[in-house]
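Late entry, evening session. Most of the bench is empty. Finally got around to the prediction I had been postponing all week. Sequence below, unchanged from the version circulated by S.P.
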Amino acid sequence: MTTCGKNQLTHPDSGHPELFSPEELGERPVVAATKCGMTELSGRDEAIRFMSFGSGSSGNCSYVGDVRSGFLIDAGVEGAVVENSLRAVGIPMTAVKGILLTHDHGDHVRYVYSLLRNHRHLLVYCTPRVLNGMLRRHSLSRRVKDYHRAIYKEFEFTIGNFTITPFEVIHDGSDNCGFHIRHGQTTMAVATDLGCVSERVDHYFTGVNFMMLESNYDREMLLTGGYPDYLKARIEKESGHLDNAASARLVADKWHSGLTYVFLCHLSNDNNTPQQALKTHAEIIREAHPELTIGDGSQENLTDLQMIALPRFAPTPLYILRRKP
């Protein structure tokens, strides 16, 4: 479903667990990016550094930062993977100032307390309902409250040089959030789990330079696959997950010359492939914008838009995302 019903803008906590159990993705896309450590750039650099450590029902976590500091979005990937991946590109954990949580499903919060315990300077940013849902659903130490900084939808807050605005997305977790991220004049929108494009998603994805957006399933693969009917219906509903075509229509609708990178996240292992997600996006976007050229990040100077399907397990390179002048 492309858009949400008006009565779905705000919804109660459904109490549902995750949709999928951990499975291994057999295919991993090849991506390319500029690698850069924390000390290699200085001055008034507005570039955003982005790295994913895993994206899917087995675990979600990514890094957003600048030359001085940054933060994690979600904590569903083991801390050692996060620490080692950042260290490999010259970013120490002392430069990571906090963890933003989108919602309380296990594939987004499983390792939050171990990260906090091992790095006592970290803070966890989430709404009070996400905190309470996380403690209710999962076997996490209640000491996570000691690190909590409450955030509220539509109220911006800052981490380092970043201004972040949480916004409503429709999903079956507790008080689900997307994030609009501003760094100087450079902007990024993030929505990892959503069943439809609500008015707030439409608003916050307008005019951004970079996107991380769910592209969970191919509808034909879902309908003809082996999932039971109740699970298919749950995935397709407005509080479920976003399919490739709906994701692509949002990108096509929001395309402007300043949008240069789209990262497709939370791809299903059973009902999608990276190739299918990228193919559907390319077809729908080119139908709306025939002149647009789409690349994979390896030759960004030769194409208008870079489209990357984030792997389920493997960390990506560190992407240096710069706004077009």
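Two things to note before I forget:
The chain is about 25% helix and 20% strand.
Confidence is low (pLDDT under 50) at residues 6-43.
Will write this up properly tomorrow.
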